[in-house]
Write a structure and sequence with these properties.
By secondary structure, the chain is an all-alpha fold. The chain contains twelve helices and two strands, in the order αααααααααααββα. About 65% of the residues lie in helices and about 0% in strands. Strands 1-2 form a two-stranded antiparallel ribbon. A hairpin with an 8-residue loop joins β1 and β2. The radius of gyration is 23 Å and the shape is globular.
Amino acid sequence: MAAPPSPPSNIGLWTILSESRRILRAQPPLFQTLLLLFLLPSSFLLSLYPFIYKLFSPTPTTESHIGSLQQNPPIFSFPIKPFIFNLVYSLIISAFSNFAAGSITYSVFHGFYGRPVKPSSAIKAAFTSFFPLISTSLVHVNWIFAYVIVVVESSWGLEPLKRSQVLVKGNKGVALKILLFFGFLSSIYVWNSMLQSGGSAGDEWKSWSFFFNIIGTTAFYMVTMLYNLAAYTVFYIYSKALHGELAEEFAGDYVSLPFDDGKVPHTLSSVVIFKARADFIDHNWSQNSNVSLAGPG
C-alpha cells in the first residue's frame, strides 16, 4: 500500500482566510444569529464612542476656559464623568466581545469538522467560556491561540498561554501576518470613526451622513471581527495538525471518507483531511443536517 501523503509543511494567511470563509458560509443562520446577538452591539457601541464621549466630555471655548481659571484657579481636577463613562463603556464592549469570542470560536471549530451547531449550543458556549476568557489575556504573537484554547480545550489562566506558545512554534510568521492584517483593518475602522467625529456633538446627530457612517462602520467592524475569530480558530486547527494532534479529532465519528467515484472508501486521517476535507464536510452536512451538538465539551 502506498504511503499516505504528508501533511502540509507550511500554512499561509490566504489559506486560513479561504478556509474561514468556507466555514462561515456553510451555516449562515447560525453565524447571522451570533452576529446580531454579540458582534452587532459591540460594533455599534464602538462606532458611537467618539460621538457619545463628547457629550460626557464637552470642550469648553477659550473664553469660558480662561474665565473659569481666573475665578477658580485649579489645584487638581479629576474628570470623574469621562472616567466613569469610559469604564462602563469598556466593560459593556468587553462583555459582548467575550461572548462573541466564545460562541464564534466554538462554532467555527466544530464547523471545520462538518458538525452542525445549533444557536443554543453556541450561546451556551459563550456563557461557559465567559469568565475563563476574562482571566486570559491575548497580547502577543506567541499567545494568538489563547482565546481559542480557552473555548476548545476548556482551560484558563496561564495554561492557554503556555499551550499557545507550543502550538505557534514554526508558524510565528503566519501569526504575525494575521495580527497585522486584522490590525490594519481595525485601524481603518478607528481612523474613519475619528474623522467623522470632528464636528460639534449637537449637530452631528441631525445629519444623514452621520447615520450612514454609523451603519457602515458598524457593518465593517462586525465582518472584520467575525473573520478575525474564524481565522484564529482555523489557524489553531492547522497548527494542531502540523504538530501531529489532528488525528484525535477524527478518532470517533469520522472513520472513512466516501468519494463520488463509488470505490472503496479511503481511510480518513490527519494527513488526508487537507486534501479531501471539502468533499467530506459537504457529504457530512447533507447526511446530518438535522443533527446538532448537545452543547460545548
